[in-house]
Amino acid sequence: MSYTVTFRTNMTGPMMSFNMDKLEHGVCLVDFTKEDGTARRMLATRNMTFIPTTKWPKYSDRLEPLCFRTDRVVVWDLEAGEYRSFCLSRLNNITVV
User: Which of 5, 12, 72, 92 has the fewest beta carbons closer than 10 A?
Assistant: First the structure.
């Protein structure tokens, strides 16, 4: 089953879509630009198999896709061992590893 998020980069911007399947089903190398303009690469997933059970969301069996802003995606950073997020509007590339 495909999992797609629809979002706006700002209140008046056009609607955009992002297919979450790569992050939901496996591990990805996410290349994006941080809000301060620096480049960032992150080994990330939304697949609960790769997240320690002690770090699972307390009231859900899956991660909420977005937080605060409509184009921000919450992921598990495998290298940091913590939750992180990135803006879809600043996503440069995503590759399944």
Answer: 12
